[in-house]
């Protein structure tokens, strides 16, 4: 009887044991976990196209941006045959423009000291805030030109035609030679008109108008 009890206890009280299969641990890590130089050839082929595509995308982005980044100076080109060169905001000291056709040319804010415009056609040209100190504008066609805020001191305007030109603001003609110049319909400050009337003389050879009359001198 005792043996039977021992047998029954050993048969039903022992808990069954289950063994689950454990994942095999490989001695070789995944190819993608290795550095690029140590990866198999197949893994390299998967990685390199991705890197190349990213580099190509970055290059394309840089090129697209560069198309919009233009030298600011290239955006300012005037009219006339000289328009291929930039004349706005430039240092053109002593430059020779004599006899040239420079209709509506843009010389805004440029330094034009001692520049030569003798006999040039400058209809509608802009000299806004430009420095024309000592420039030669004799015999030039300056009809409708803009001299607003320009420094025209000691410039040679003899026999120049300035009909309808603008000279508003602090435009200065101090020391300028205006013999034979035509100032018809040029808006001048009272102090500038008074100064020019003191030195005005001659008659414009193109229009036949006396300089003093065009300045409305008393």
Automatic annotation (TrEMBL):
GO terms for cellular component: chloroplast thylakoid. InterPro entries: 5peptide_repeat (IPR001646), At2g44920-like (IPR044213). It comes from the Eukaryota. This is Thylakoid lumenal 15 kDa protein 1, chloroplastic.
């Amino acid at each position: 009887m005792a043996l039977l009890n021992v047998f029954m206890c050993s048969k039903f009280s022992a808990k069954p044991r289950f063994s689950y299969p454990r994942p095999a641990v490989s001695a070789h890590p995944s190819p993608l976990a290795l550095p690029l130089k140590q990866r198999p050839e197949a893994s390299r082929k998967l990685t390199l196209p991705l890197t190349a595509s990213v580099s190509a995308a970055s290059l394309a982005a840089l090129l697209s941006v560069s198309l919009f980044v233009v030298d600011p100076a290239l955006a300012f080109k005037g009219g006339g045959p000289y328009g291929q060169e930039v004349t706005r905001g430039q240092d053109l000291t002593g430059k020779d423009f004599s006899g040239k056709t420079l209709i509506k040319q843009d010389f805004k804010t440029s330094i034009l000291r001692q520049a030569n415009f003798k006999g040039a056609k400058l209809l509608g040209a802009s000299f806004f805030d430009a420095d024309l100190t000592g420039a030669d504008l004799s015999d030039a066609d300056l009809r409708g030109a803009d001299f607003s805020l320009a420094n025209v001191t000691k410039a040679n305007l003899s026999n120049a035609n300035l009909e309808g030109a603008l000279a508003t603001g602090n435009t200065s003609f101090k020391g300028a030679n205006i013999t034979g110049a035509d100032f018809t319909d040029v808006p001048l400050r009272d102090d500038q008109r008074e100064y020019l009337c003191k030195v005005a003389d001659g008659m414009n050879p193109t229009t036949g108008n006396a300089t003093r009359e065009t300045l409305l001198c008393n």
